Protein backbone atom coordinates (compact mmCIF):
# COMPACT_ATOMS: atom_id res chain seq x y z
CA UNK A 1 0.00 0.00 0.00
CA UNK A 2 1.31 3.45 -0.86
CA UNK A 3 2.32 5.54 2.15
CA UNK A 4 -0.26 8.22 1.35
CA UNK A 5 -2.99 5.66 1.87
CA UNK A 6 -1.78 4.20 5.13
CA UNK A 7 -3.98 4.74 8.19
CA UNK A 8 -6.62 6.49 6.12
CA UNK A 9 -9.33 5.51 8.60
CA UNK A 10 -8.09 8.28 10.86
CA UNK A 11 -9.98 10.70 8.61
CA UNK A 12 -13.25 9.31 9.92
CA UNK A 13 -12.52 10.30 13.49
CA UNK A 14 -10.27 13.29 13.22
CA UNK A 15 -10.54 16.66 11.61
CA UNK A 16 -7.40 16.00 9.59
CA UNK A 17 -7.44 18.94 7.17
CA UNK A 18 -7.54 21.42 10.05
CA UNK A 19 -4.94 19.45 11.96
CA UNK A 20 -2.48 19.33 9.04
CA UNK A 21 -2.90 23.06 8.60
CA UNK A 22 -2.48 23.97 12.26
CA UNK A 23 0.51 21.68 12.70
CA UNK A 24 2.06 23.18 9.55
CA UNK A 25 1.80 26.61 11.16
CA UNK A 26 3.46 25.33 14.33
CA UNK A 27 6.18 23.73 12.20
CA UNK A 28 6.77 26.99 10.34
CA UNK A 29 7.18 28.83 13.62
CA UNK A 30 9.71 26.29 14.85
CA UNK A 31 11.53 25.74 11.57
CA UNK A 32 11.04 28.78 9.35
CA UNK A 33 13.71 27.62 6.89
CA UNK A 34 11.80 24.41 6.00
CA UNK A 35 9.25 24.15 3.23
CA UNK A 36 5.78 25.03 4.51
CA UNK A 37 3.43 22.15 5.34
CA UNK A 38 3.65 18.66 6.76
CA UNK A 39 5.43 16.14 4.56
CA UNK A 40 3.56 13.07 3.36
CA UNK A 41 5.55 10.95 5.80
CA UNK A 42 4.67 13.25 8.69
CA UNK A 43 0.99 13.11 7.78
CA UNK A 44 1.11 9.31 7.61
CA UNK A 45 2.78 8.97 11.00
CA UNK A 46 0.33 11.38 12.55
CA UNK A 47 -2.59 9.31 11.24
CA UNK A 48 -0.98 6.14 12.57
CA UNK A 49 -0.55 7.65 16.04
CA UNK A 50 -4.11 8.95 16.01
CA UNK A 51 -5.35 5.43 15.32
CA UNK A 52 -3.45 4.16 18.35
CA UNK A 53 -0.48 2.59 16.56
CA UNK A 54 2.89 2.78 18.27
CA UNK A 55 5.95 4.12 16.38
CA UNK A 56 7.14 0.50 16.07
CA UNK A 57 3.88 -0.55 14.42
CA UNK A 58 4.01 2.45 12.12
CA UNK A 59 7.58 1.62 11.12
CA UNK A 60 6.51 -1.92 10.33
CA UNK A 61 3.75 -0.65 8.07
CA UNK A 62 6.04 1.80 6.35
CA UNK A 63 8.69 -0.92 6.04
CA UNK A 64 11.39 1.24 7.57
CA UNK A 65 13.51 1.03 10.71
CA UNK A 66 11.80 1.80 14.02
CA UNK A 67 14.62 4.15 14.95
CA UNK A 68 14.02 6.22 11.81
CA UNK A 69 10.41 6.77 12.78
CA UNK A 70 11.29 7.55 16.39
CA UNK A 71 13.93 10.11 15.42
CA UNK A 72 11.65 11.74 12.86
CA UNK A 73 8.85 12.01 15.41
CA UNK A 74 10.99 13.48 18.13
CA UNK A 75 12.62 15.99 15.80
CA UNK A 76 9.35 16.90 14.12
CA UNK A 77 5.77 16.03 14.92
CA UNK A 78 6.12 15.83 18.71
CA UNK A 79 7.66 19.31 18.81
CA UNK A 80 5.01 20.82 16.48
CA UNK A 81 2.36 19.29 18.68
CA UNK A 82 3.79 20.83 21.86
CA UNK A 83 3.82 24.16 20.11
CA UNK A 84 0.27 23.76 18.81
CA UNK A 85 -1.12 22.85 22.22
CA UNK A 86 0.87 25.49 24.07
CA UNK A 87 3.06 23.11 26.03
CA UNK A 88 6.73 23.25 26.95
CA UNK A 89 9.26 21.84 24.55
CA UNK A 90 10.06 18.17 25.25
CA UNK A 91 7.10 17.82 27.57
CA UNK A 92 5.57 15.05 25.44
CA UNK A 93 6.46 11.82 27.20
CA UNK A 94 4.73 9.09 25.25
CA UNK A 95 3.41 8.65 21.73
CA UNK A 96 0.03 8.04 23.36
CA UNK A 97 -0.06 11.70 24.40
CA UNK A 98 -0.54 12.71 20.78
CA UNK A 99 -4.14 11.53 20.44
CA UNK A 100 -5.05 12.56 24.00
CA UNK A 101 -3.68 16.08 23.63
CA UNK A 102 -5.31 16.62 20.27
CA UNK A 103 -8.61 15.28 21.49
CA UNK A 104 -8.46 17.64 24.46
CA UNK A 105 -8.25 20.64 22.13
CA UNK A 106 -11.11 19.45 19.96
CA UNK A 107 -9.63 17.91 16.82
CA UNK A 108 -11.60 14.71 17.18
CA UNK A 109 -14.87 14.70 15.27
CA UNK A 110 -17.83 14.34 17.57
CA UNK A 111 -18.89 10.77 18.01
CA UNK A 112 -22.36 9.50 17.29
CA UNK A 113 -23.57 7.06 19.95
CA UNK A 114 -26.69 4.96 19.42
CA UNK A 115 -28.16 3.00 22.36
CA UNK A 116 -24.72 3.14 23.92
CA UNK A 117 -26.19 3.96 27.33
CA UNK A 118 -28.32 0.82 27.14
CA UNK A 119 -25.28 -1.42 27.54
CA UNK A 120 -25.54 -3.30 30.84
CA UNK A 121 -22.98 -2.41 33.49
CA UNK A 122 -20.14 -4.86 33.70
CA UNK A 123 -18.73 -5.33 37.18
CA UNK A 124 -15.09 -6.39 37.46
CA UNK A 125 -14.12 -8.79 34.72
CA UNK A 126 -11.66 -11.43 35.91
CA UNK A 127 -9.21 -12.84 33.41
CA UNK A 128 -10.10 -12.71 29.71
CA UNK A 129 -7.00 -10.68 28.88
CA UNK A 130 -5.94 -13.17 26.21
CA UNK A 131 -9.36 -12.99 24.60
CA UNK A 132 -9.44 -9.19 24.79
CA UNK A 133 -6.01 -8.92 23.23
CA UNK A 134 -6.97 -11.31 20.47
CA UNK A 135 -10.16 -9.43 19.65
CA UNK A 136 -8.41 -6.06 19.72
CA UNK A 137 -5.70 -7.40 17.49
CA UNK A 138 -8.24 -8.58 14.96
CA UNK A 139 -10.23 -5.36 15.04
CA UNK A 140 -7.52 -2.76 15.25
CA UNK A 141 -4.52 -4.56 13.82
CA UNK A 142 -3.54 -4.27 10.22
CA UNK A 143 -5.56 -7.28 9.08
CA UNK A 144 -8.71 -6.44 7.21
CA UNK A 145 -10.96 -7.93 9.87
CA UNK A 146 -14.29 -6.13 10.14
CA UNK A 147 -16.59 -8.69 11.73
CA UNK A 148 -15.89 -10.65 14.89
CA UNK A 149 -18.23 -12.84 16.84
CA UNK A 150 -17.97 -14.16 20.37
CA UNK A 151 -19.62 -17.56 20.63
CA UNK A 152 -20.23 -19.54 23.80
CA UNK A 153 -22.83 -21.11 26.05
CA UNK A 154 -25.17 -19.22 28.35
CA UNK A 155 -23.47 -17.37 31.16
CA UNK A 156 -19.96 -17.79 29.81
CA UNK A 157 -19.40 -14.05 29.72
CA UNK A 158 -19.90 -13.12 26.05
CA UNK A 159 -21.80 -9.93 26.77
CA UNK A 160 -19.39 -8.91 29.52
CA UNK A 161 -16.45 -9.45 27.20
CA UNK A 162 -18.07 -7.60 24.29
CA UNK A 163 -18.86 -4.60 26.50
CA UNK A 164 -15.38 -4.48 28.00
CA UNK A 165 -13.93 -4.66 24.50
CA UNK A 166 -16.29 -2.01 23.15
CA UNK A 167 -15.46 0.40 25.95
CA UNK A 168 -11.75 -0.13 25.47
CA UNK A 169 -11.78 0.63 21.75
CA UNK A 170 -14.70 3.03 21.35
CA UNK A 171 -12.47 6.07 21.03
CA UNK A 172 -11.08 4.68 17.82
CA UNK A 173 -14.44 5.03 16.08
CA UNK A 174 -16.47 7.98 14.96
CA UNK A 175 -19.76 6.28 15.69
CA UNK A 176 -20.76 3.56 18.13
CA UNK A 177 -23.94 1.47 18.11
CA UNK A 178 -25.17 -1.01 20.71
CA UNK A 179 -28.04 -3.34 19.86
CA UNK A 180 -29.40 -6.20 21.91
CA UNK A 181 -31.66 -8.63 20.07
CA UNK A 182 -32.89 -10.27 23.28
CA UNK A 183 -36.41 -8.97 22.75
CA UNK A 184 -36.42 -9.94 19.08
CA UNK A 185 -36.95 -6.57 17.40
CA UNK A 186 -37.91 -6.61 13.73
CA UNK A 187 -35.05 -5.58 11.44
CA UNK A 188 -36.84 -2.56 9.95
CA UNK A 189 -37.44 -1.21 13.47
CA UNK A 190 -33.80 -1.61 14.38
CA UNK A 191 -32.47 -0.05 11.19
CA UNK A 192 -35.08 2.71 11.29
CA UNK A 193 -34.00 3.65 14.80
CA UNK A 194 -30.30 3.67 13.87
CA UNK A 195 -30.83 5.73 10.72
CA UNK A 196 -32.92 8.25 12.64
CA UNK A 197 -29.92 9.04 14.76
CA UNK A 198 -27.40 9.12 11.93
CA UNK A 199 -26.92 12.32 9.89
CA UNK A 200 -29.68 13.25 7.44
CA UNK A 201 -27.65 12.81 4.29
CA UNK A 202 -28.23 9.07 4.37
CA UNK A 203 -32.01 9.04 4.25
CA UNK A 204 -33.08 5.70 2.70
CA UNK A 205 -35.25 5.60 -0.44
CA UNK A 206 -38.06 3.99 1.54
CA UNK A 207 -38.81 2.50 4.94
CA UNK A 208 -38.36 -1.01 3.57
CA UNK A 209 -35.59 -2.85 5.37
CA UNK A 210 -33.54 -3.39 2.19
CA UNK A 211 -33.46 0.35 1.42
CA UNK A 212 -32.57 1.05 5.03
CA UNK A 213 -29.83 -1.55 4.83
CA UNK A 214 -28.25 -0.05 1.75
CA UNK A 215 -28.35 3.42 3.36
CA UNK A 216 -26.66 1.97 6.44
CA UNK A 217 -23.97 0.26 4.37
CA UNK A 218 -23.22 3.57 2.63
CA UNK A 219 -22.72 5.14 6.01
CA UNK A 220 -20.49 2.35 7.30
CA UNK A 221 -18.34 2.62 4.18
CA UNK A 222 -17.81 6.34 4.65
CA UNK A 223 -17.47 6.35 8.42
CA UNK A 224 -15.73 4.12 10.86
CA UNK A 225 -18.34 2.82 13.29
CA UNK A 226 -18.34 0.18 15.94
CA UNK A 227 -21.54 -1.86 15.91
CA UNK A 228 -22.12 -4.34 18.74
CA UNK A 229 -24.99 -6.79 18.31
CA UNK A 230 -25.75 -8.81 21.45
CA UNK A 231 -27.70 -12.09 21.69
CA UNK A 232 -27.94 -12.92 18.03
CA UNK A 233 -29.26 -16.39 18.94
CA UNK A 234 -32.52 -14.78 20.07
CA UNK A 235 -33.64 -14.54 16.46
CA UNK A 236 -32.69 -18.11 15.54
CA UNK A 237 -35.40 -20.71 15.44
CA UNK A 238 -35.15 -23.56 17.90
CA UNK A 239 -35.35 -27.27 17.25
CA UNK A 240 -33.14 -27.49 14.20
CA UNK A 241 -29.70 -28.96 13.90
CA UNK A 242 -28.21 -25.96 12.17
CA UNK A 243 -28.86 -22.46 13.44
CA UNK A 244 -31.41 -20.87 11.13
CA UNK A 245 -33.18 -17.56 11.43
CA UNK A 246 -36.71 -17.74 12.82
CA UNK A 247 -39.41 -17.21 10.15
CA UNK A 248 -39.91 -13.46 10.61
CA UNK A 249 -36.24 -12.71 11.00
CA UNK A 250 -34.78 -14.11 7.81
CA UNK A 251 -33.85 -10.60 6.64
CA UNK A 252 -31.25 -10.45 9.43
CA UNK A 253 -29.23 -12.84 7.30
CA UNK A 254 -28.88 -10.06 4.73
CA UNK A 255 -27.79 -7.60 7.41
CA UNK A 256 -25.09 -9.98 8.65
CA UNK A 257 -24.00 -10.92 5.14
CA UNK A 258 -23.63 -7.28 4.15
CA UNK A 259 -21.76 -6.44 7.35
CA UNK A 260 -19.44 -9.40 6.92
CA UNK A 261 -18.92 -9.56 3.18
CA UNK A 262 -19.21 -6.06 1.78
CA UNK A 263 -16.20 -3.80 2.07
CA UNK A 264 -16.56 -1.06 4.69
CA UNK A 265 -14.37 0.56 7.28
CA UNK A 266 -16.49 -0.20 10.33
CA UNK A 267 -16.21 -3.01 12.83
CA UNK A 268 -18.98 -5.36 13.90
CA UNK A 269 -18.95 -7.37 17.12
CA UNK A 270 -21.63 -10.02 17.55
CA UNK A 271 -22.30 -12.23 20.56
CA UNK A 272 -24.27 -15.43 20.20
CA UNK A 273 -24.82 -18.73 21.95
CA UNK A 274 -24.99 -20.39 18.56
CA UNK A 275 -22.86 -20.07 15.52
CA UNK A 276 -24.44 -19.99 12.08
CA UNK A 277 -23.09 -19.69 8.58
CA UNK A 278 -22.80 -15.89 8.61
CA UNK A 279 -20.71 -16.00 11.77
CA UNK A 280 -18.52 -18.85 10.64
CA UNK A 281 -15.87 -16.91 8.77
CA UNK A 282 -12.56 -18.67 8.69
CA UNK A 283 -9.43 -19.02 10.76
CA UNK A 284 -7.31 -17.79 7.84
CA UNK A 285 -4.99 -14.93 8.76
CA UNK A 286 -6.59 -12.41 6.44
CA UNK A 287 -10.21 -13.37 6.81
CA UNK A 288 -12.47 -10.34 7.32
CA UNK A 289 -14.79 -12.49 9.45
CA UNK A 290 -13.51 -14.12 12.64
CA UNK A 291 -15.03 -15.86 15.61
CA UNK A 292 -13.83 -16.51 19.09
CA UNK A 293 -15.15 -19.51 20.96
CA UNK A 294 -15.38 -18.41 24.55
CA UNK A 295 -14.46 -21.19 26.98
CA UNK A 296 -14.44 -21.31 30.76
CA UNK A 297 -12.29 -19.13 33.00
CA UNK A 298 -8.89 -20.33 34.12
CA UNK A 299 -8.63 -21.47 37.74
CA UNK A 300 -7.08 -18.25 39.11
CA UNK A 301 -9.70 -16.05 37.44
CA UNK A 302 -12.62 -18.27 38.38
CA UNK A 303 -11.31 -18.36 41.96
CA UNK A 304 -11.66 -14.59 42.06
CA UNK A 305 -15.38 -14.96 41.39
CA UNK A 306 -15.71 -17.37 44.30
CA UNK A 307 -13.70 -15.04 46.51
CA UNK A 308 -15.84 -12.08 45.44
CA UNK A 309 -18.94 -14.08 46.40
CA UNK A 310 -17.23 -14.53 49.79
CA UNK A 311 -16.82 -18.27 49.84
CA UNK A 312 -14.60 -18.86 52.89
CA UNK A 313 -10.99 -19.19 51.78
CA UNK A 314 -10.61 -21.99 54.32
CA UNK A 315 -12.41 -24.15 51.75
CA UNK A 316 -9.98 -23.24 49.00
CA UNK A 317 -8.60 -26.75 48.59
CA UNK A 318 -12.00 -27.69 47.13
CA UNK A 319 -12.33 -24.78 44.75
CA UNK A 320 -10.53 -26.53 41.94
CA UNK A 321 -13.09 -29.35 41.88
CA UNK A 322 -15.92 -26.87 42.07
CA UNK A 323 -14.60 -24.74 39.22
CA UNK A 324 -13.93 -27.76 37.08
CA UNK A 325 -17.42 -29.16 37.74
CA UNK A 326 -18.86 -26.01 36.18
CA UNK A 327 -16.19 -25.80 33.51
CA UNK A 328 -15.23 -22.31 34.60
CA UNK A 329 -18.62 -20.84 33.61
CA UNK A 330 -18.72 -17.50 35.46
CA UNK A 331 -22.47 -17.23 35.83
CA UNK A 332 -22.82 -20.81 37.11
CA UNK A 333 -19.98 -20.20 39.55
CA UNK A 334 -21.67 -17.09 40.88
CA UNK A 335 -24.96 -18.95 41.30
CA UNK A 336 -23.37 -21.95 42.95
CA UNK A 337 -21.27 -19.82 45.29
CA UNK A 338 -24.44 -18.10 46.51
CA UNK A 339 -26.15 -21.47 46.98
CA UNK A 340 -23.22 -22.82 48.98
CA UNK A 341 -23.35 -19.75 51.19
CA UNK A 342 -27.08 -19.94 51.71
CA UNK A 343 -27.61 -23.69 52.11
CA UNK A 344 -24.23 -25.11 53.15
CA UNK A 345 -22.87 -22.28 55.31
CA UNK A 346 -20.08 -21.81 52.79
CA UNK A 347 -18.81 -25.38 53.19
CA UNK A 348 -17.68 -26.35 49.69
CA UNK A 349 -16.72 -29.87 50.76
CA UNK A 350 -20.25 -30.61 51.98
CA UNK A 351 -21.70 -29.18 48.79
CA UNK A 352 -19.47 -31.36 46.60
CA UNK A 353 -20.25 -34.38 48.80
CA UNK A 354 -23.98 -34.27 48.07
CA UNK A 355 -23.20 -34.63 44.36
CA UNK A 356 -25.97 -32.35 43.12
CA UNK A 357 -24.80 -29.73 40.66
CA UNK A 358 -27.99 -28.30 39.13
CA UNK A 359 -28.89 -25.73 41.77
CA UNK A 360 -30.78 -22.45 41.77
CA UNK A 361 -31.03 -20.74 38.41
CA UNK A 362 -28.63 -23.19 36.80
CA UNK A 363 -31.61 -25.36 35.96
CA UNK A 364 -33.25 -22.44 34.16
CA UNK A 365 -30.02 -21.72 32.30
CA UNK A 366 -29.78 -25.27 30.97
CA UNK A 367 -33.54 -25.41 30.34
CA UNK A 368 -33.19 -22.49 27.95
CA UNK A 369 -30.50 -24.28 26.01
CA UNK A 370 -32.13 -27.71 26.13
CA UNK A 371 -35.42 -26.43 24.74
CA UNK A 372 -33.65 -25.12 21.65
CA UNK A 373 -32.05 -28.43 20.73
CA UNK A 374 -33.14 -30.55 17.81
CA UNK A 375 -34.72 -33.93 18.49
CA UNK A 376 -31.56 -35.68 17.37
CA UNK A 377 -29.47 -33.71 19.85
CA UNK A 378 -31.90 -34.43 22.68
CA UNK A 379 -31.88 -38.15 21.77
CA UNK A 380 -28.12 -38.26 21.91
CA UNK A 381 -27.92 -36.41 25.20
CA UNK A 382 -30.29 -39.08 26.54
CA UNK A 383 -28.06 -41.89 25.28
CA UNK A 384 -24.91 -40.32 26.69
CA UNK A 385 -26.63 -39.71 30.03
CA UNK A 386 -27.34 -43.42 30.41
CA UNK A 387 -23.63 -44.17 30.41
CA UNK A 388 -21.38 -43.12 33.22
CA UNK A 389 -18.37 -43.65 30.92
CA UNK A 390 -17.62 -41.69 27.72
CA UNK A 391 -18.99 -43.36 24.57
CA UNK A 392 -16.99 -43.73 21.38
CA UNK A 393 -18.79 -42.38 18.35
CA UNK A 394 -19.27 -45.85 16.88
CA UNK A 395 -21.31 -46.86 19.91
CA UNK A 396 -23.83 -44.08 19.45
CA UNK A 397 -26.54 -45.49 17.27
CA UNK A 398 -28.54 -42.73 15.71
CA UNK A 399 -29.18 -41.86 12.05
CA UNK A 400 -28.07 -38.24 12.59
CA UNK A 401 -25.32 -39.06 15.02
CA UNK A 402 -22.49 -37.13 13.35
CA UNK A 403 -24.33 -33.86 12.80
CA UNK A 404 -25.89 -33.99 16.26
CA UNK A 405 -22.57 -34.68 18.00
CA UNK A 406 -20.92 -31.77 16.18
CA UNK A 407 -23.80 -29.48 17.11
CA UNK A 408 -23.65 -30.52 20.77
CA UNK A 409 -19.91 -29.98 20.87
CA UNK A 410 -20.37 -26.51 19.39
CA UNK A 411 -22.87 -25.73 22.10
CA UNK A 412 -20.40 -26.96 24.77
CA UNK A 413 -22.98 -29.35 26.20
CA UNK A 414 -20.82 -32.42 25.59
CA UNK A 415 -17.07 -33.04 25.65
CA UNK A 416 -14.71 -35.29 23.80
CA UNK A 417 -11.91 -37.23 25.42
CA UNK A 418 -9.58 -39.92 24.12
CA UNK A 419 -12.16 -42.58 24.95
CA UNK A 420 -15.25 -40.89 23.58
CA UNK A 421 -18.00 -38.38 24.20
CA UNK A 422 -19.65 -37.50 27.46
CA UNK A 423 -21.90 -34.83 28.94
CA UNK A 424 -20.46 -32.05 31.05
CA UNK A 425 -21.44 -32.70 34.71
CA UNK A 426 -24.31 -30.20 35.01
CA UNK A 427 -25.84 -31.41 31.76
CA UNK A 428 -25.44 -35.03 32.86
CA UNK A 429 -27.40 -34.35 36.02
CA UNK A 430 -29.93 -32.22 34.19
CA UNK A 431 -30.69 -34.88 31.59
CA UNK A 432 -30.83 -37.66 34.17
CA UNK A 433 -33.00 -35.91 36.71
CA UNK A 434 -34.70 -32.93 35.19
CA UNK A 435 -35.80 -34.02 31.73
CA UNK A 436 -39.28 -35.54 31.97
N1 LIG B 1 -14.66 -12.77 33.37
C1 LIG B 1 -15.61 -12.57 34.26
N2 LIG B 1 -15.33 -12.18 35.52
C2 LIG B 1 -16.29 -11.97 36.42
N3 LIG B 1 -17.60 -12.12 36.18
C3 LIG B 1 -17.95 -12.50 34.95
C4 LIG B 1 -17.00 -12.74 33.93
N4 LIG B 1 -17.64 -13.09 32.82
C5 LIG B 1 -18.94 -13.08 33.11
N5 LIG B 1 -19.14 -12.72 34.39
C6 LIG B 1 -20.43 -12.64 35.07
O1 LIG B 1 -21.19 -13.77 34.67
C7 LIG B 1 -22.52 -13.41 34.36
C8 LIG B 1 -22.85 -13.81 32.95
O2 LIG B 1 -22.08 -13.03 32.04
P1 LIG B 1 -22.67 -12.57 30.63
O3 LIG B 1 -24.02 -12.01 30.78
O4 LIG B 1 -21.63 -11.75 30.01
O5 LIG B 1 -22.77 -13.98 29.90
P2 LIG B 1 -23.25 -14.29 28.42
O6 LIG B 1 -22.30 -15.26 27.85
O7 LIG B 1 -23.49 -13.04 27.70
O8 LIG B 1 -24.63 -15.05 28.70
P3 LIG B 1 -25.94 -15.15 27.75
O9 LIG B 1 -25.68 -16.24 26.77
O10 LIG B 1 -27.02 -15.50 28.71
O11 LIG B 1 -26.15 -13.83 27.10
C9 LIG B 1 -22.63 -11.92 34.64
O12 LIG B 1 -23.14 -11.78 35.93
C10 LIG B 1 -21.21 -11.42 34.60
O13 LIG B 1 -21.03 -10.34 35.45
MG1 LIG C 1 -25.16 -12.19 26.89
Helix amount, in percent?
40-55%
Order of helices and strands: HHHHHHHEHEHEHHEHEHEHHHHHHHEEH
What integer is the average pLDDT?
92
CATH secondary-structure class of the largest domain: Alpha Beta
Tell the overall outline.
globular
Main structural class: alpha/beta
Multimer state: single chain
Instruction: Determine Rg (CA atoms, Å).
Output: 26 Å
Number of helices: 21
Separation of the first and last Cα atoms: 62 Å
> At the third CATH level, what is the topology name of the largest domain?
Rossmann fold
Order of strands, main sheet, comes to 1-3-4-5-2-6
CATH architectural grouping of the largest domain: 3-Layer(aba) Sandwich
Number of domains: 4
Which ligands occur here?
adenosine-5'-triphosphate, magnesium ion
Spans where pLDDT lies below 50 across 5 or more residues = none
Task: Tell me the number of strands.
Answer: 8
Q: Major sheet, described briefly?
A: 6 strands, parallel
A few lines on this structure:
The chain has helices at residues 10-13, 16-30, 40-50, 55-62, 66-75, 77-84, 96-104, 129-140, 158-169, 187-197, 209-222, 251-261, 277-280, 299-308, 319-325, 330-344, 348-353, 362-371, 375-386, 401-410, 425-433, and strands at residues 112-114, 147-151, 175-180, 225-230, 267-272, 289-293, 414-417, 420-423. It has 436 residues and is of the alpha/beta class. The mean pLDDT is 92.
Task: Explain what this protein looks like in three dimensions.
- The chain is of the alpha/beta class.
- The chain folds into 4 domains: 3-104; 112-293, P-loop containing nucleotide triphosphate hydrolases (Rossmann fold, 3-Layer(aba) Sandwich); 299-355, no CATH class; 364-433, Winged helix-like DNA-binding domain superfamily/Winged helix DNA-binding domain (Arc Repressor Mutant, subunit A, Orthogonal Bundle).
- Helix content is 48%, strand content 9%.
- The strands form 2 sheets. Strands 1-3-4-5-2-6 form a 6-stranded parallel beta sheet, with helices on both faces. A two-stranded antiparallel sheet has the order 7-8.
- Helix 12 links the parallel strand 4 (225-230) and strand 5 (267-272).
- Helix 10 (187-197) packs across helix 11 (209-222).
- The mean pLDDT is 92.
- The site of adenosine-5'-triphosphate has 21 residues, from helix 9 and helix 16.
Amino acid sequence: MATEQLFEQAAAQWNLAQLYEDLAKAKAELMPHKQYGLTTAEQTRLRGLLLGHSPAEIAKQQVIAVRTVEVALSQGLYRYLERLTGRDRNSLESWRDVADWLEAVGYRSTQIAINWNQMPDVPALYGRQVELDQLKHWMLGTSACRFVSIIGPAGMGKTSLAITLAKAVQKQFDGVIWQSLRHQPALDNVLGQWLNKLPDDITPHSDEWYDQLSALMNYLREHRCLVVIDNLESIFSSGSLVSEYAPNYANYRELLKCLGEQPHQSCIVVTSRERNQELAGSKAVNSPIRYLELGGLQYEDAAQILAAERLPTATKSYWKSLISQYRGNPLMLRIVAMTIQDLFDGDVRRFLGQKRTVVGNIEYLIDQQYERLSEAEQDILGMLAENAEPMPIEAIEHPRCLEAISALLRRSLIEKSAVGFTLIPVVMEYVRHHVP
